[in-house]
Amino acid sequence: MDTTPTVPVPAVPAHATQPGLAPVPAVLHVGQVRVAPPTVLAPMEGLTDATFRTLLRAMGGCGLVVTELVSARELRLGTARARRAARIAEDTRPVAIQLYGADPGTMAESARICEDEGPDIIDINMGCPSKAVTRRGAGAALLRDLDRAAAIVGAVRKAVNRPVTIKMRLGWDATSLTAPELARRCELEGADAVAVHARTREEMYRGSAHWEEIARVKAAVSIPVIGNGDVTSVGSALRMLRVSGADGVMVGRAAVRNPWLLLQISQALAGRPIFRPTLSQQREMLLEHFARVRARCDHPGAVLGRMKRIIGYWIDGVPNAESLRRQVFHARSPDEAVAEVNRFFDQAMREEGTAIRAADGAGTNRCAPCSSFRREGTGERARSDFRRAVVSNEHGKP
Q1: Beta bridge partner(s), residue 7
Q2: Which ranges of the chain does DSSP label H, i.e. alpha helix?
Q3: Res. 184: pLDDT tops 80
Q4: Are residues 165 and 122 in contact, defined by beta-carbon separation less than 8 angstroms?
């Protein structure tokens, strides 16, 4: 019998409604592509690589993943970096390839190249705030050039037979909130859905997301609208949906800090108990991620560098996690990094067990997650099939 710790939450029907707002669908239809649940992993350069996307899809709860940002110009030139970024894996479907660029012809040609890779969706970036992107008229710069933006969507739409989606922000700054008009024009050019980060380019990632502005985009179009920005927990995802009336949720950096978040959001939308990982499961997934990085790269230095970057992915909420980050950061080889992870979690699980026994002996109450933690062994024994740890009869794919 599975005893994975869960925290019951009030049922939130998959079609729950709020006064004046559209229902949240259980399934998001993007053209002919079925996205279920309506949860999306945002594209983030250097973070959401193919290995991470594969792991999240295997865990369940993520309806759609998007590749890292791909330069249309570089893809047309055939650079190794662009080709690698546009590569997809069958076990990540449905998956979108995200392109950025400022020239309609180049974008159309690159979209045709992408189509050969077999993505389910072609996504166009109109929201990246980076100067390296905007100074060339691409990304968020298109929020100030709606004619060019519309021309790009129209050219890509004519070039491919896949659904075309747009990722945008609210506008360039607070004086030019162009997202509703841009979304309307994109729909007229054949876009199948839009995702809106509820900040302007000027705000970058500062301040709070303006979820109410997503509602204005939703009112301007008939295609699905996906909300993004400050979705850092199950509660914030539900609040964003209620305030914005969005049809789906896109999660960015918070999914890197807590890779279980998309699964948890999908469970909340379905009114199911929310999965909470044990220490053993957090170690198991971290080591699985390490193992997949090693399998994809032959150079020990590159492997170790990637390990140091992803060490924080799977240890959200782990006591004294900063000490593990330091130990892995100072590791001199991949094997040493793995040994540090095992050493840290062995100690953490011993301390957790001691605390639970002490609480039991004293007759005191302890927190629900701690009281239901499973003891699944330590060291290499904890590295059982990672799917078993997170996809079970209780909390598997919705």
Answers
A1: 274
A2: 50-59, 72-77, 80-85, 104-117, 131-134, 146-159, 179-188, 211-220, 234-244, 253-257, 261-269, 279-296, 300-310, 321-329, 334-362, 368-371, 386-390
A3: yes
A4: yes
- Report the C-alpha gap between 196 and 135 in whole angstroms: 21
Could you give the CA distance from residue 129 to residue 169 in angstroms, rounded to a whole number? Answer: 9
What does each C-alpha distance from 367 to 59, 158, 195, 374 come to in angstroms? Answer: 25, 57, 38, 14
Active site residues: 128
- Encode burial over 59-82: b for 16+ CB neighbours within 10 A, e otherwise: bbbbbbbbbbbbbbbbbbeeeeeb
Please give the distance of CA 339 from its chain centroid, rounded to a whole number.
29
Over residues 384-390, the mean pLDDT reads 40
Q: What's the angle, vertex CA 310, arms to CA 307 and CA 314, rounded to 5?
A: 120
From residue 357, give the alpha-carbon distance in Å to each of 189, 278, 365.
64, 17, 11
CB 377 within 8 A of CB 268: no
Can you say whether the dihedral through the CA atoms of 295, 301, 307, 309 is positive or negative? Answer: negative
The tens digit of pLDDT for each residue in 68-112 reads 899 999 999 999 889 888 888 888 899 999 999 999 999 999 999
Strand partners of residue 275: 6
**Average pLDDT of span 253-267:** 92
Question: Which residues belong to CATH 3.20.20.70 in the chain?
Answer: 6-275
Query: pLDDT tens-digit profile of 124-181?
Result: 999 999 999 999 999 999 999 999 999 999 999 999 999 999 999 999 999 999 999 9
Task: Say whether 332 sits in a helix, a strand or coil.
Answer: coil
> What pLDDT digit, counting tens, does each position of 38-53 carry?
999 998 877 778 888 9
Closest by CA position to 202, among listed 148, 140, 146, 142: 140
**Residue 163: cis peptide before it, omega within 30 degrees of 0:** no
Contact between 264 and 275 under an 8 Å Cβ cutoff? The reply is yes
C-alpha dihedral sign at 197, 200, 201, 204: negative
Instruction: Provide CB contacts within 8 A for 251, sequence distance 6+.
Output: 39, 40, 41, 42, 228, 231, 237, 261, 262, 265
Task: Report the CATH architecture of 6-275.
Answer: Alpha-Beta Barrel (3.20)
pLDDT given for residue 14 in this prediction: 40
Return the H-helix or E-strand segment holding 30: strand 28-30
Supply 343's token pair: 């050493």
Do residues 360 and 23 touch, judged by C-beta distance below 8 A?
no
